[in-house]
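tokens incoming
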């Protein structure tokens, strides 16, 4: 990620959860996004197959009410922080058995943004007094998301 991208990443986390993240956190963040996006797309593929389709559509994504609210918050925050270009870079499509519909490709940056908002909020839920997530905080957040998504 470029220096400009690092700055936007940091501003984004400050805007959605009053967190100060460090440049070193980018690797953890990227790993989190890749892992959770893959999990969501695996479930989407299963849903598409169960419905007799050979293409994954946005309706197949297991978007919960909470994640939908985080996506909406991301969209509002993006107007101020302008981080959508970074979310597009992070919305990598892993190879799946089924094809991706064009509309899934268009929706994934917002899903990545929603996951990012949810992650930032999770840090604050796990430790409301913390302003800088540490390794243990990242690990706890990852375990929490693995339980839920």
């Amino acid at each position: 990620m470029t220096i400009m991208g690092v700055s936007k990443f940091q501003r984004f986390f400050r805007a959605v959860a009053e967190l100060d993240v460090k440049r070193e956190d980018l690797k953890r963040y990227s790993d989190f996004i890749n892992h959770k996006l893959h999990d969501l797309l695996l479930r989407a593929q299963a849903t598409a197959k169960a419905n007799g389709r050979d293409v994954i559509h946005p309706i197949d994504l297991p978007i919960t009410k909470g994640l939908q609210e985080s996506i909406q918050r991301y969209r509002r925050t993006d107007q101020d922080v302008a981080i959508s270009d970074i979310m597009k870079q992070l919305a990598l499509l892993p190879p799946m058995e089924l094809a991706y519909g064009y509309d899934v490709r268009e929706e994934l940056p917002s899903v990545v943004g929603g996951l990012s908002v949810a992650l930032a909020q999770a840090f604050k839920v796990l430790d409301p007094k913390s302003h800088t997530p540490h390794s243990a905080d990242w690990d706890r957040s990852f375990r929490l998301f693995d339980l839920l998504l």
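note: The chain has one domain: 3-148.
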